[in-house]
Structure formats: C-alpha cells, structure tokens
Sequence to fold (244 residues):
Amino acid sequence: MENNKIRINKYLSQCGVCSRREADRMLDAGAVTVNGYPVSKGTLVTSSDSIYVEGVPVRNSPPEIVIAFHKPAGIVCTSSKKDKAETIIEYIGFPERIYPVGRLDKQSTGLILLTNNGQMTDDILRGSNYHEKEYVVTLDREMTPSIYKAMEQGVPILDTMTRPCRITHRKGKVFHITITQGLNRQIRRMCEYFGYRVKNLKRIRIMNIQLGDLEEGKWRYLTDEELSELKEECRRKGSSTAPI
Fold:
C-alpha cells in the first residue's frame, strides 16, 4: 500500500479499523481526516498519508482481534451512540478498537462476533457467500407442520422473497432455524407473516463458530482452530444456487 493509492474505505478495512460499510458511514459523518482535512468516500490514499478516524491515528496492520460475545437483551449492536441504550462496544469495554460483525436486534440474544479485521467483516456479511447463521426461536404458540414447510421454502417480506432456510429441533413452541441472509429483523418478520409472534430469539451459531456454554454477557477469543476454519470459509465464494 506504500506506493499504490487506494480508496479510503478500502484502506481503513485493510488496516483493520472497520468494515468498508462502517467506513462509509464514518466518512459521511466527517469522522475521517487525511493530512488534517475531512475526506469523502472517493478519496485515494497511501500509507504515507496522515489518517485519523474520530481523532485516533490509523496504524497499518494492527494485531488481529476476533472475539465471540454472548449478547444480552437490551444491548444495541452499533459502534456509535444513537439513543439511550447501551451499545455493544460500551458493554464489552474492550481496550482496542473493534466492531461488531453484523447485528442482533436489541431484544435478541446470543452469538455475535467482533473484530478489527475489516476484510473479514465484509466477507462474513456478504450475502453472496451464503454463510450460515443458526437461531433458537420461541414463539407465542406452537407452529403447524404446514407452516414450517412453507417457511422453509421462502417468505415474502421487505419486498423480496427470503432464501430457502432449514428448520430443525421442532418441539412445542421452540425450533431451530438456519438462514443464509441477514434481512432486517428477518426471522421475526417471517414468523409474523404467518401470524406468529417471536417471544425469544437467540443466535447459537455463525458459520463454524458455536455459542456453546459461553455465559450471557461474557466474551472469549476464538481458538486458533476456529479462526483458521472461519478464514477458510470466508475465502470460499458462494453461489446464487447454493443450497441451505
């Protein structure tokens, strides 16, 4: 990166500051300066430029951090303060700059990854890679077999049809669902479409990373084996016809 100029959002991602999407938000907010001046998304930079994000100098290639966190209800998965709710960054209080990989809505609980590896964040969130996420859903009443089958085939929400999903561990009002996309409040909307209300939603897996027995409100570093497998999955490109 010393001699070749690249877009500022890509540079911040490669330096592990944040994902490109998050970089775009910070650029729009005027939180990024290059050589003392606020810059826009299209700005080209090199590692010789003096780059600051929210007043903090950008270091090239800091040590990689990837952690798994068991999010409690009531915590919002943003890195910036928008309302009175406590953010995930405030709750964890990690000493280095890290960002959540995707989101869980405020009332949902369970597994979320946080990292300073912007490229990994982009790879995990890219819908075309068909990365799996598994949730435990508790409804207000038991769902019928025909509804389960219809839900697995796809549900019309948010002006689109959800991808086929997999539903397992059906028992009473509780079931597991595995999806490969991340539409806004997707699972809640899918259930609401059929007239059911989600009482509890807990994510227990992201790709190869399991929530396991990690206590609510606690975090842990990924093991070397988990991180290696996660990166290998990130390197694989998805297919528009990939089955669930």
Notes: The mean pLDDT is 89. The radius of gyration is 19 Å. The first strand starts at residue 6 and ends at 7.
